[in-house]
């Protein structure tokens, strides 16, 4: 026997004499559900629903008005508005709208006439963002005279 085996056998014998349980287990920690009032839970930041887009004109320039149903996440503090000229993205952040109950936004920045724009929203809470909302699109008028 090597010195290590002799030392290990001696340690096991000593522990057995002292009444120690030398059985091994695969688990170092165990978990039990429902530990009184110390139960943990997580919340999910829900995206807004029902996004729609309507094109029109404002001061001889195209505009697109977005409307949606507010998120059900009570800790949301606003929405990020994303826009693309390609169906399905990629999207570019256009604006941050504050207020969980805000449900409209009018985009007038950098729009071209006779162009389809695609939008999604994300709910925000501090530095957290939700998954994407459903996509909505609208095509700007060919000419804005009013």
Describe what is shown at a glance.
With 146 residues, this protein is mostly beta strands.
Note down, in words, how this protein is organized.
The chain has a domain at 49-139: Immunoglobulins (Immunoglobulin-like). It is 10% helix and 36% strand. The chain has one helix at residues 3-17, and strands at residues 49-58, 61-69, 78-84, 92-98, 104-107, 116-125, 128-129, 136-139. Strand 1 and strand 2 (61-69) form a beta hairpin. The protein is elongated. Mean pLDDT is 83; it is low at 22-31.
List the helices and strands and how they pair.
Layout: H1 3-17, E1 49-58, E2 61-69, E3 78-84, E4 92-98, E5 104-107, E6 116-125, E7 128-129, E8 136-139
Antiparallel strand pairs: 1-2, 2-5, 3-4, 3-6, 6-7, 6-8
* Largest beta-sheet details: 5 strands, antiparallel
Compute the number of strand runs: 8
CATH superfamily descriptor of the domain at 49-139: Immunoglobulins
Q: What is the structural class?
A: mainly beta
Gyration radius from CA atoms, angstroms: 30 Å
**What is the average per-residue confidence, as pLDDT, rounded to a whole number?**
83
Ends apart, CA distance between termini: 99 Å
Helical amount among residues, as a percent range? 10-25%
Q: So how many helices?
A: 1
**Anisotropy-based shape:** elongated
- CATH architecture field of the domain at 49-139: Sandwich
Topology order in helix (H) and strand (E) letters: HEEEEEEEE
The CATH topology of the domain at 49-139: Immunoglobulin-like
Low-confidence stretches: 22-31
Give the strand content. 35-45%
CATH class of the domain at 49-139: Mainly Beta
């Amino acid at each position: 026997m090597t010195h290590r085996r002799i030392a290990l056998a001696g340690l096991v014998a000593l522990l057995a004499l002292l009444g120690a349980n030398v059985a091994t287990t695969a688990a170092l920690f165990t978990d039990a559900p429902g530990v009184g009032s110390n139960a943990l839970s997580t919340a999910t930041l829900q995206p807004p629903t029902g996004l729609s887009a309507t094109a029109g004109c404002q001061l001889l320039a195209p505009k697109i008005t977005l409307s949606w149903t507010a998120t059900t996440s009570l800790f949301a503090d606003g929405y990020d508005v994303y826009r693309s000229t390609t169906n399905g993205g990629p999207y570019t952040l256009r604006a941050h709208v504050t207020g969980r109950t805000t449900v409209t936004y009018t985009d007038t920045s950098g729009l071209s006439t006779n162009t389809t724009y695609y939008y999604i929203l994300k709910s925000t809470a501090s530095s957290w963002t939700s998954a994407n909302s459903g996509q909505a699109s609208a095509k700007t008028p060919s000419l804005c005279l009013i």
